[in-house]
Amino acid sequence: MNIVVCVKYVPDSTADQAFEADNTVDRVGVPGLLSELDEYAVEQALQLKEKNSDPDSVTVTALSVGPEGAADAIRKALQMGADAGAHVVDDAVAGSDALATSKVLAAAINKIGSVDVVVCGMASTDGGMSVVPAMLAERLDLPQVTFASVIESQDNQFRIKRDGDTATEIIGAVTPLVLSVTDQTGEARYPSFKGIMAAKKKPLESYALSDLGVDAGQVGLSAAWTAVESTEARPPRTAGTIVTDEDGSGATALTEFLASKKFI
Q1: In sequence order, which residues have a C-beta less than 8 Å from that of residue 173 and are 6 or more positions away?
Q2: From the centroid of its chain, how far is CA 243?
Q3: Residues with Cβ < 8 Å from 106, sequence gap 6 or more?
């Protein structure tokens, strides 16, 4: 079985965020890391391998599209236990929207070879669109089972549980397929010292768009269907409102305040 897990290199949410002059996210001058939501995808890919009757026959490849620094996200997945990495790095990719990203990912997956399961996180922590897994399934002409909170598999049979606002769905499919997982699937493992050392010897392939047969004119900011028109810094935090209850009117004052802010 061949499993590809898509991982994204995102700006560290604890660092000061910055934007380029074209309103795209600064991914070079800001510290980055593997998206936390994609760590769950890596974990589930590794569990699929470990639960297989022949784990040695299963290969988990971590795939990322991004700048040079995105290799760090792939290395984190390798340290967690992935077997190989693939990195699409090309200046023309900068500013790509979800449509273009899914196009590049699909081309890279086809380049990797015959794939049984493509695993994705439920969203990226910087974009939060949650549409790339579905777009990827369409481009690869594969069934999709998305937003899985519980995953069960036996041979080529997969069954997931998807928790919605009003109901829980049980969805089944057979491989090959695209699977996206939520943060309810279980905590992701931490890389062990042994895993960190072993990752240094694992293969990590780099591809340019030309290696994948993707036209540079079809990706990037100029080809994006969506774009950020403007950005502005978050206003400084103001002093809060103190509600006192010296004369017994505190409850009324608190209710009026919450109502004025449309919290109730």
Answers
A1: 143, 144, 145, 158
A2: 42
A3: 136, 139, 140
pLDDT by residue (tens digit) across 151-182? Answer: 999 889 999 999 988 899 999 999 999 999 99
Query: Helix, strand, or coil here: 158?
Result: strand
CA atoms of 195 and 199, how far apart (whole Å): 6
Q: Write down the pLDDT at residue 172.
A: 94
Distance separating alpha carbons of residues 204 and 75, to the nearest angstrom: 9
Strand order in the sheet with 59-65: 144-148, 177-181, 117-121, 2-6, 59-65, 84-88, 204-207
Strand partners, 181: 121, 148
The length of the chain in residues reads: 264
Name all domains of the chain by residue range, CATH numbers in brackets. 2-223 (3.40.50.620)
Per-residue pLDDT reduced to its tens digit, 65-116: 999 999 999 999 999 999 999 999 999 998 899 999 999 999 999 999 999 9
d(C-alpha 130, C-alpha 182), whole Å: 11
Strands 117-121 and 84-88: unpaired
Give the span between the Cα atoms of 245 and 230, in whole angstroms: 44
**Count of C-beta atoms within a 10 Å radius of residue 59:** 17
